[in-house]
Amino acid sequence: MKLNIAVVQLNPILGQLEKNYKTALKLAELGIERAKNKKLDLIVFPEMAITGYNFKSKLHVEPFLEIAGTGKTYELAKSLSEKYKCHTLIGYPEKFPISETAYKIYNSAMLIDAKGKIVHNYRKTFLYETDEVWGCDESPEGFQAFDMEIQGRKLKATIGICMDLNPYKFEADFNDFEFGTFCAKEKVDLVLAPMAWMNTSWSADWSEKDVAEFTEIYQQPLEFEVNVDESQSQHSTATQPFDRKAIDEKTKSYWRLRLYPIFAAREEKRNVLVVYCNRSGVEDNLMYAGTSNIVRFGGGLPIFRDESVVLDYEEYGELGQGTEGVLVREGII
Question: Where, if anywhere, are coiled coils annotated (predicted)?
Fold first, then answer.
């Protein structure tokens, strides 16, 4: 089965909802238009796609919270899904009322179908320290697998938001691979990972000078990266000086490693399609890794060739670490 997927990589400006909305819409439509006549199945946006991520408090994030099925984030996803008759996944800060006066906050991602309805609303299970700063709660349900109907076929899908791919609180055993183990155990067909993942050139110990230097780099104008053809996926590894168009290879390799249990599941030959959709840019003192990409993990026994182990694995394309852009590819499940 072949899925046509558009991955939209954004650099949302914190709190500038209208501007971010327009950029997200423009990029999605630009990629689909350039892809020519391809019937799209799925559009994927990053974590907290049009609000920005690095909020400083509950009071700071409050104006941007959305009840599932309302607000600008839902409006964007609904309009795209209805227009292109596809599914759209998008991250947002969720307000979940628990009484007339009280509510909980979740870092969530909603999946909208071609009729504009929410078919699944996932809440982040493993929280990053930034989530906790603005009052986010862990999902009470944990990781979830759910049915998703595309092209008349039911796929088993799951969503992992950014920190979900890491060890719990960075304290759990690295080799537990909690999210990857869940994916393998549930035998999912499709893994969707909207993220706001840090760049490996970033450090929590950044000085004001570091912030200023990278902020200046990102203030330089750069055209949108519209990658709709395999010949366009020729990116270099990040070098010095910092190259926004290059791939953050260390981050990309780490994402693969965290899904090791999918590789290790050798009882049957089965494809698993993984969509990594990360944001880019500098936001206050944080810098994100971009590098959004689509890959296929295959099952079955490994092949031994020239003293090396060859795994059934295929990359379908990627975006630069510091660009805003859209990647459109056909992936196989």
Answer: none
Token readout for 238 is 């990040």
User: Would you say 115 and 5 are in contact if contact means Cβ atoms under 8 Å apart?
Assistant: no
Largest Cα–Cα separation, the chain: 66
* Segments making up each domain of the chain, as ranges: 2-332
Q: Coil, strand, or helix at residue 104?
A: strand
- This prediction has a pTM of 0.95
Q: How far apart are CA 198 and CA 210, in angstroms?
A: 15
Specify the pLDDT at position 230. 77
CB 7 within 8 A of CB 58: no
* Residue in 118, 258, 121, 106 with CA at minimum distance from that of residue 197: 258
Domain 2-332 in this protein, CATH class: alpha beta
pLDDT digits (tens, 9 = 90+) for 14-24: 999 999 999 99
Task: Supply 297's token pair.
Answer: 């993990």
Distance CA 239, CA 299 (A): 34
Helix, strand, coil % over all residues of the chain, rounded to 5 = 30, 30, 40
pLDDT in tens, 217-274: 999 999 999 999 876 667 776 666 799 999 999 999 999 999 989 877 766 678 999 9
Task: Assign 236 to helix, strand or coil.
Answer: coil
The dihedral over CA atoms of 122, 126, 131, 132, expressed in degrees to the nearest 10, equals 130
Strand residues in the chain grouped as ranges (E):
2-9, 42-44, 87-97, 103-112, 118-123, 145-150, 153-159, 190-195, 225-227, 272-278, 282-283, 286-287, 293-297, 303-305, 308-310, 313-318, 325-332
Q: What angle do CA 215, 90, 321 make, to 5 degrees?
A: 35
Sequence-distant (6+) residues with CB within 8 A of 227 are 233, 317, 318, 319, 325, 326, 327, 328
d(Cα 145, Cα 138) in Å, to the nearest integer? 17
Angle at 137 between CA 135 and CA 142, to 5 degrees: 160
